[in-house]
Amino acid sequence: MIRENSDIKIIELTSEEREEFKKASAAAREVYRKSVGDRGNKILDGFEAEIAVLESKKKNK
Questions:
Q1: In which domain, by residue range, is 48 found?
Q2: Which InterPro entries is this protein grouped with (predicted)?
Q3: Start-to-end C-alpha separation, the chain
Q4: Domain count, the chain
Q5: If DSSP codes are grouped into helix, strand and coil, which group holds residue 16?
Q6: pLDDT of residue 9
Q7: C-alpha to C-alpha distance for 32 and 37, rounded to whole angstroms
Q8: pTM of this structure
Q9: Has residue 53 been placed in a domain?
Q10: Residue 8 · residue 2 · CB < 8 Å
Q11: What is the pLDDT of residue 2?
Q12: Is residue 4 situated within a structural domain?
């Protein structure tokens, strides 16, 4: 929907690029987790679980 309704450029990372980003952002995620408490951690857990489901679906195609 964003692609059709705006001029925002969406860049899709390869599996290798996503893995590198995940490694590079690990420290930032830890800082976030330490600063947001239980509620924020539950939100991040939910995002990470949803990402895992979507990545799994993409691999199975």
A1: 36-61
A2: TRAP_DctP_sf
A3: 21
A4: 1
A5: helix
A6: 85
A7: 9
A8: 0.65
A9: yes
A10: yes
A11: 66
A12: no
- The pLDDT tens digits for 4-49 are 788 888 888 998 998 999 999 999 999 999 999 999 999 999 999 9
- Which residues lie closer than 8 Å to 38 by C-beta, 6 or more apart? none
Let me know if residue 58 belongs to a domain: yes
Q: Which two tokens stand for residue 10?
A: 């969406």
Helix locations, the chain, DSSP H: 2-5, 15-24, 26-59
Tokens of 1: 């929907």
Closest among 46, 24, 44, 22 to 34, alpha carbons compared? 44
* 25: its two tokens: 């952002």
| 41 or 2, which is more confident | 41
